[in-house]
Amino acid sequence: MPVNQQILLDNRPEGEAVESNFRLVSTETPALAEGQVLVRHHYLSLDPYMRGRMNDSKSYAQPQPLGEVMIGGTVGEVVESRHPKFAVGDKVVGMGGWQEYSVVDGDAPGMLRKVDTTHVPLSHYLGAVGMPGVTAWYGLVKIIAPKAGETVVVSAATGAVGSAFAALAKARGCRVVGIAGGPEKCRYATEELGFDACIDYREHPDTKTMAKALKDACPQGIDGYFENVGGYILDAVLLRTNAFARIALCGMIAGYDGTPLPMTNPALILINRIRIEGFIVSEHMEVWPEALQELGRLVGTGKLRPRESIAEGIASAPSAFLGLLKGKNFGKQLVKLTP
Amino acid sequence: MPVNQQILLDNRPEGEAVESNFRLVSTETPALAEGQVLVRHHYLSLDPYMRGRMNDSKSYAQPQPLGEVMIGGTVGEVVESRHPKFAVGDKVVGMGGWQEYSVVDGDAPGMLRKVDTTHVPLSHYLGAVGMPGVTAWYGLVKIIAPKAGETVVVSAATGAVGSAFAALAKARGCRVVGIAGGPEKCRYATEELGFDACIDYREHPDTKTMAKALKDACPQGIDGYFENVGGYILDAVLLRTNAFARIALCGMIAGYDGTPLPMTNPALILINRIRIEGFIVSEHMEVWPEALQELGRLVGTGKLRPRESIAEGIASAPSAFLGLLKGKNFGKQLVKLTP
């Protein structure tokens, strides 16, 4: 039985999350029962939603239980199988959690999916051709539903969701403006990800200067906004919205650590007849096949070339995750779990 | 030529609107040109949206120009006509403004509409079977789109919009909960308007106590909310929303006088996957015929019996309007312009 290193949630954050909220343990992988599959994880995905799960508060999902393996998406390889549909060597994507191996019931719907790595590298099934990519697709296609020529904006622009958003919106003929932290990320956004413009929020740290920067970058106003961040950036975007703008609310990372961040002037929703919609991509499984097909095609044809930040080894997951929450990653944050 | 008393906007409010923002003048009605109609107004409608027009700020509509007759809906009678479609004695609804007479181009689309007063009293075409009624209809039917058994809530519950909302929502099998100011209005809401419950916001003057009152009145949570008010009531409603709740944003009267009122915790939009949509009923003329038909039927069959607050004479319009903004009216606020 291989030894399985795991990261558990040991205790809940008070304010900012810290490394000591997590605990590393080693166990043996159990023997498989009939119908089960043992997966060796190659990569663990780190995503902002995990911060929300660490709190013990009402949300769309149950809190992460204390003392259990942290939730997380994984890609890997079947190393042992007692299920007829899975063979040793199959590449699979699942929700294996922050650990090196997982034992999965091969019949549980949606828990384990075989993937083809001919045109798409395995790790991208955690990013552009996975949950973050579908998240971008749903917000853009189903909520913002832009017409060609409209201007759409996304915050956390160079992350896994933002970079997929850019490729999808360019494919629909939109002007795409990103918001990211630092000149390097902004250069990457315009030079490699296809953004028409990118605003460095560090240079525009308040509503007024951000609204001015948005005015310059969006001379025709904003028709659609994909929100990953919240706080003053949302306030500034609202000031620049056109009539009938649509806002897909996917994340409010700026408020995860404590006091909720207010929306300063919700009357703008009325004044500009805006539609705001919060969504969770896992509640819209019906769109995944169509979305994954388009995303796979964009990656396969080189129109979407996502960058990855890769931490090495399961023990590095907590610090990599805390860095992600502060925007230290560059592109999709992964943890590599094989040598 | 009859003398026409008019109320002009003389100067813009600084903070709260006051009577001296308005000015009463007398003019002679002009001679009609070919195609024009002279209407003697029986009633002027007073509505919260007018407060927004008094400000010189960006909004969905142009500000009310200074020195001109205040905008407003009117019902009346044709007293002179040089248009073949309108005859002396016709009862008509239009946007005649705060004055006793108006001269209207009979061909201008949507400016003047003949109405039938057989089953519906003329004044109701400014309320339940007019713009406020259609406003309630649009927010309920097109945005909230409730299923039977769902719980819907409306603020300013006993006003023209709120009372129509209650009748429309009861007709769809909803539990309908109102929010109004004072025990008399709350009693009227439940005893005459068909509300299942009504919360007196004066007894619940902050988010916490209002959220508690909503929990009691909405034991199954809130599926739809029609917002006329904004401020802490919206904050409290958000705390009690069910997953996939819909909020129709029609008015933010609480913030009209000055500093915008924030939304304290917009992350709830994401947590509960809420859809919020601002709307202006005049931009959805395509629904008016269907909506007016249902509203006329509800009034004609006695299922919607709206109350009216009637001020006498054009000179009383400013004080009646300021009272409306403070919730002093009981039901639809009108000004009677004929003896």
TrEMBL record, chains A, B:
Gene Ontology molecular-function annotations: oxidoreductase activity, acting on the CH-CH group of donors, NAD or NADP as acceptor
Pfam families, sorted: ADH_N_2, ADH_zinc_N
Domain Enoyl reductase (ER): 17-335
Keywords: Oxidoreductase
Protein name in UniProt: Alcohol dehydrogenase zinc-binding domain protein
